[in-house]
Design a protein that fits this description.
This protein is α+β, with helices and mostly antiparallel strands. The protein folds into 2 domains: 7-79, no CATH class; 105-340, Beta Barrel (Thrombin, subunit H), CATH 2.40.10. It is built from 7 helices and 17 strands. The strands form 4 sheets. It has a 6-stranded antiparallel β-barrel with strand order 4-5-6-9-8-7. A 6-stranded antiparallel barrel has the order 10-11-12-17-14-13. The chain has a 3-stranded antiparallel sheet with strand order 1-3-2.
Length: 348
């Protein structure tokens, strides 16, 4: 097996190896996004297919197939690439992580009004603090996995912090470990040592449509659990980068960053990211942008597969936010010198 696989291919390979049939379906859009692309071209399709071929994975992606990027592609692992089975070790069976809450769960569990649904979202919303600032976050896994913005956990030097403080809805505090972040897409995943938490169900941001109602929860200006309401102004809006954001007129202010943006059913469709304010004296209003949650889903599933405790132990690159299975001298994703590898390494 080629050891020099790109991170998204390595993740999918590990997932397929863990599946009895070695198959997986995902939307073409999500597959392209995992490689950092928003549009399909002859060059990037060739690159993606070649990367999967080196991993002995067949993917039915082509320039004209599937016709829509929201339609699924199938990835199939060549069974010859699967390692020979070894006898199962004796001893107790280790259970996998509990399932994530299903979409619509907050709306079904005796919560008849939108006020009750948003109250549940508020319970799963946290404040995140570093030495230089803070923002909001949202619990996405009952075992303590939190989603927030990368810029919320950045230090003064622009490197991601490894540990931050998290304040929960009940007033308690925890030290969270940053286990994954992405500078361009501006998201980060944290783990706190708490279990059986209320988590917000992950929605399908790819199915979002203009004019749907959304709610923003966070702590603008330190005002905890503030709620604003608006509509989806644009389901996919490309700005100065290749990133596609959700545009909304729901109020987003400093302190909201990383907080949940949910549907009327309480499903998470993204996190508050940035606001366009324009140039004085012609300041803009109601131009707010949300990073869609579908950018993050694969990383959430990967962390749950390896275990959140294991993720906290693994070496973490504070430059690009990549998590390593071993402790290499240089980051396998961005090439930065890692902590402990030399005088230029980032602080642990």
């Amino acid at each position: 097996m080629d050891a020099d696989l790109k991170p998204p291919v390595a993740r999918i390979l590990q997932e397929l190896l863990g599946r009895p049939k070695g198959t997986k379906k995902m939307s073409a859009r999500r597959l392209l996004r995992s490689f950092g692309y928003e549009r399909r071209s002859q060059e990037n399709v060739r690159e993606i297919c070649e990367q999967f071929r080196r991993a002995h994975i067949h993917v039915d992606l082509a320039l004209a197939h599937p016709p829509s990027l929201d339609e699924p592609v199938t990835l199939i692992l060549d069974e010859s690439a699967r390692p020979a089975a070894t006898p199962a070790p004796s001893g107790p069976v280790v259970e996998g992580p509990p399932p994530l809450p299903r979409r619509g769960k907050l709306a079904r569990r005796g919560r008849a009004s939108i006020a009750d649904i948003i109250a549940a979202v508020q319970e799963a919303t946290v404040q995140v603090f570093t030495e230089v600032g803070g923002g909001s976050g949202v619990i996405v896994d009952p075992d303590g996995l939190i989603l927030t913005s990368r810029h919320v956990v950045d230090s003064e030097t622009g490197l991601s912090e490894r540990e931050v403080r998290v304040d929960l809805w009940d007033g308690s505090h925890e030290t969270a470990t940053v286990v994954r972040s992405h500078r361009v897409l501006d998201y980060a995943l944290l783990v706190i040592p708490r279990r059986k938490l209320l988590a917000v169900p992950i929605g399908d941001s790819l199915r979002l449509r203009e004019a749907e109602t959304v709610y923003v929860v966070g702590s603008p200006g330190g005002l905890t659990n503030s709620v604003s309401r608006g509509i989806v102004s644009a389901a996919r809006r490309r700005c100065t980068t290749n990133v596609e954001y959700i545009q909304t007129d729901a109020a987003i202010n400093p302190g909201n960053s990383g907080g949940p943006v949910v549907t009327e059913q309480g499903d998470l469709i993204g996190i508050s990211t940035w606001t366009y304010v324009g140039d004085q004296p012609r300041a803009a209003h109601g131009l707010n942008f949300v990073i869609p949650v579908d950018y993050v889903v694969d990383d959430i599933q990967f962390l749950r597969r390896i275990g959140l405790t294991e993720a906290c132990r693994r070496p973490y690159c504070r430059h690009c936010g990549w998590l390593h299975a071993a402790a290499p001298r240089y980051c396998e994703c961005c090439g930065a010198l890692l902590a402990g590898a030399g005088p230029e390494g980032s602080a642990p």
